[in-house]
Amino acid sequence: MIPWQQLDRAKVPGGRGEIALYRRGEELSIRLDRAELMNSRMHGSEEKLAELGCAPVRERERPSVLVGGLGMGFTLAATLAQLGPSAEVVVAELIGAVVAWNHAHLGHLAGHPLKDARVQVYEGDVRQLLRERKAGFDAVLLDVDNGPSGLTRDSNSQLYSPSGLGAAHTALRAGGVLAVWSVASDPAFTRRLGRAGFEVREHNVSARAGSKGPRHTLWIAIKG
Question: How far apart are CA 175 and CA 25, in angstroms?
Fold first, then answer.
């Protein structure tokens, strides 16, 4: 068995401990302490998030999409694949080291999406960007932490609180989409989305494309 090799580690701003990047052969993993946050072999649900989240708005003229959370770049790459050449895609990533890892170690996994001319990188809290861009986005795709129940830092849960969902609602244009990834279902969150003014559909999808392995939850919420 090939052992895991730690490539780098970084503090989580305002969060719990450190995240670290590991490699084992061709496999890459990002972990918080012993908990694996993402793995290069498991990204089917991230790609489905982009597919379902972009579908209602992809034919709009010059669509603007916000991707909250860069991770290993799979959600960003799938978003770009859904959109035409006139689209604008902003990817917000709180941890600067994750952006650096995508340039140095991870970019090849998803076809180097940060090199796409349609992409703008915002290194900071996605909540701040949502507050700044009122009616600025056609779709907001949130792949932050483990979903509505924050793991890396407590303040991530605020993104999925009534005030956080209100900010996302305000940041969307009419008929815009809020798409949310989660490691598990959360009925209380589904109800919060409805109370925030969204028409909601919940999807249970495979973590690996076409696999019978782990499953994740996606919410596709349309601004009413």
Answer: 44
Q: What is the DSSP secondary structure assignment for residue 179, as one 8-state letter?
A: E
Q: What is the pLDDT of residues 117-138, one digit of tens each?
A: 999 999 999 999 999 999 999 9
Do the beta carbons of residue 223 and residue 178 sit within 8 Å?
Answer: yes
Give the CATH number for residue 85.
3.40.50.150
pLDDT tens for residues 169-207?
A: 999 999 999 999 999 999 999 999 999 999 999 999 999
| Residue 87 falls inside a structural domain | yes
Q: Would 24 be classed as within a structural domain?
A: no
Structure tokens at 58: 């992809």
Using CA atoms, how far apart are residues 45 and 58, in angstroms rounded to an integer?
19
Nearest CA-CA partner of 180 in 154, 150, 152, 212: 150
CA 109, 115, 117, 120 torsion-angle sign: positive
